[in-house]
Design goal:
Four Helix Bundle (Hemerythrin (Met), subunit A), 205 residues, mainly alpha, single chain
Amino acid sequence: MAVKELFKNWKTIPNLLSFLRIVMVPIMSVLFLKGETGWAVFVLFLSGLSDFLDGKIARRFNQISELGKVLDPIADKLTQIMIAVVLFLFFKSGEAVPELRAFSWVFLLFVGKEILMIVVGGIMILIGIKPIPAEIYGKVATFAFYGVMLLIVAFGPQIGAFARFWTMPTLMLQILVIVSVVLCFIALFSYVPGAYKQLKNRNKN
C-alpha cells in the first residue's frame, strides 16, 4: 500500500478523534508531572471515551479510512506508553511502598510491547503491507489496560487522585496489572498469523 493512499478520504470525525487522543498524550504527561492527578484521570477518561466512540462512528456512518486504521492504534500505543512510563517512574521512586518499587519494572513490559508494535507496523507500511485491524484480543486487551490504569491513577496507593475515599490494596493492583500484561501479549501474538499471511502473499506476487 502506497503511503499516499493513507490520505484518501481522511477528513472524518473518527480521524479527528484519533488526532485529539494523540494531542492528549503530552497534556496528560504534564498533568501527571505537575501532580494534577485528578485532571490527568479526567483527560485519560476522555481519551478512552474517544477511543470507544471513533470506532463506533466509523462503522455506523461508514467513515472507515486507511489513515484511521493507522492513527487509531498509534493513539492507543502512545497513550499506553505514556501511562506505563509515568507509573513506572512513580512506583520506582522512593515515594512508593517497597512492594511496588520492586514491582515497577512490570510496567516496562507494556512499553516494550507497544514500541515493538509501532516499529513492526511502520515497517509493514513501508514495504507495502496493510496495517492489520485490531482483533477481538486487541480490543479486550486495550479495554482492560484502560480500565486497570484508570483504577490505579484514581485509587492506587500513594498515586490515586481519589485514594482518600478508597485505596486499592497493593496485592489487588499487582494482580490487575499482571492480568493486563498477559492480555496485551496474547493480543500481540494474535496479530502474527495475519501479518505472516500478508507477507507470504506479498512474496508470491
